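> forwarded from #structure-qc
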């Protein structure tokens, strides 16, 4: 198992974009969209760190509290059956289970949160 790319407590989700011909990434575990790209592992790491630093600097300039990532070992427990349903839905949208759940919790459903 590989260790995720992290910077100042934030974790990156990185994929290869054939369309763009480079690596693209976003900060996972927060609602604010922080996106970045690079043409190599070194460039994507630099872009990730700059994106996080820019986000934190922007929050400081606006005197806003930056969104904190979830705890590194936070776990949501669901039944095997529900996990299977979520995994199938996520796969259909070409997303990870975590990304799918995070997006599902943001969708308006007449209630606050999930």
């Amino acid at each position: 198992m590989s260790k995720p790319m992290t910077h100042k407590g934030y974790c990156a989700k990185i994929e290869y974009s054939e369309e763009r011909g480079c690596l693209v990434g976003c900060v996972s575990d927060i609602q604010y969209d922080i996106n970045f790209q690079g043409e190599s592992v070194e460039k994507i790491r630099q872009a990730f760190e700059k994106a996080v630093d820019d986000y934190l600097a922007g929050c400081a300039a606006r005197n806003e509290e930056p969104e904190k990532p979830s705890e590194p070992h936070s776990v949501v427990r669901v039944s095997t059956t529900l996990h299977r349903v979520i995994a199938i839905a996520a796969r259909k949208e070409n997303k990870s289970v975590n990304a799918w759940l995070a997006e599902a919790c943001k969708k308006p459903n007449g209630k606050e949160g999930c």
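QC bot note: Strands lie at 6-7, 10-17, 22-28, 35-38. The longest strand covers residues 10-17.
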